[in-house]
Write a structure and sequence with these properties.
Blueprint lengths: L2 H13 L2 H25 L1 H51 L1 H28 L7 H11 L1 H11 L4 H6 L6 H10 L7 H17 L5 H40 L2 H33 L3 H7 L1 H10 L2 H14 L5 H14 L2 H17 L6 H17 L8 H11 L6 H5 L2 H39 L1
Bound molecules: aspartic acid.
Amino acid sequence: MSESGAVTTIATKRRIPLHTKILIGLVIGAVAGLVANFAASKSPASAEAITFVAVNVAEPIGKVFLRLVIMVVVPLVFSALTLGVMELGDVRRLGRVGLRTLGFTLILSLTSVAIGIGLVTLIKPGASLSPAQQQQLSERFAAQADVSTGKAEKSKTVKDTLLDLLPENPLQEMVGAVDGTSPGNGMLAVMVFSLIVGIALTMTPDRTRPLVQVLEGVFDVSMTIIGFAMRLAPFAVACLLFSVTSQMGLDILLVLLRFVFTVLLGIGLQMFVVYPLLLVLAARLKPVKFFRDVSEAIFTAFGTSSSNATLPTSLRVAKEELKLKPEVSQFVLTVGATANQNGTALFEGVVVLFLAQVFGVELTMMQQVTVVLMAVLAGVGTAGVPGGSIPLIIIVLKTVGVPPQGIALVLGVDRLLDMCRTTLNVTGDLVLAACVSRTEERSEKAIPERALG
Ligand code: ASP
């Protein structure tokens, strides 16, 4: 090959974005799996050979990917949530604006999680596999599902579950969150511990600066390691998908389509029903005009799949198009880019319940509440970068006893869904900014009027 040819090839190779590579991995894995599934149905000898390849080649490669992610999940969640709460900690200093931000954030996150969980329970996108197929999948993937189903059986009282949110031994919970041996609530308890540390840090700002820097370092390093894992993702997705489709055939792909539909429907409902309602009721703005005004931020979010990368555009749009008070919208949008991620919260809830349906894992009421709480907290703890929610989903899956390998099914279509959920995240931040800013303006006007009256 001529030198320029080689250079062009390298340049072309470099230019293929990761999400396209993952999609190619999905297609190759699915097609190879379907062919293998067909071959296996024709001859028992090839069925054996295919199982051998799936168990000894495809699955180990998938596991390397998962382990790279899981190994940094605890430090990642701890540092991200603590730092996230520290940012929210400014809330106290900002008084009324802060409280309003917190209130609207809670309303927006809870409605989006409720919509997601409602839809996934109604549509049941993962439940169309036969019990025999579920059994097959679980046998292949679900060593840890049994462990935690066992755990769920010894279910605790509501009082103990709530008490266990406060970990007696946070380090033990951190270990337990990963290997499933936690005495309390595992990851949820770790999250509560992070919240408490975050609050305490905001109250002792002077002498804790070095600790904050360490946490920022831990966060950055964890994200870099997740970056290593993501480079492996195209191969892992191909391998894990091969392993699933060679067993399940076309059925599993239809299940996946229904899952995509469920997520998009949920995002649509939050975007075009909940947001307009809030805009009219709280911000007194016309929804159609609002969407027109913020369209630049919407397109940037859709294109970049990153709330952080869209923040400068959101700030500009809030000031120049929506004409919101800059001191309010700056605070709300900056905090919101990390803490108010409605699309992410909705997605995480849907994925976990969907995969539980796929693997036939029955979640107890308490486990479902755990999913809701973790999804809302995940909205605070997820980094506003492409694929930021993946590590958190893996840990929630482990917490409620759904095999984390199932994430492969979702990873293949994640980029498209990431673009859509990031769009919801960013629009949600702008809705939040509009509501807080407009209610704030009204309160400010009301005070002098009352004083005059
Ligand atoms: N990409 C999302 C964001 O930046 C985070 C995620 O859900 O993965 O808002």
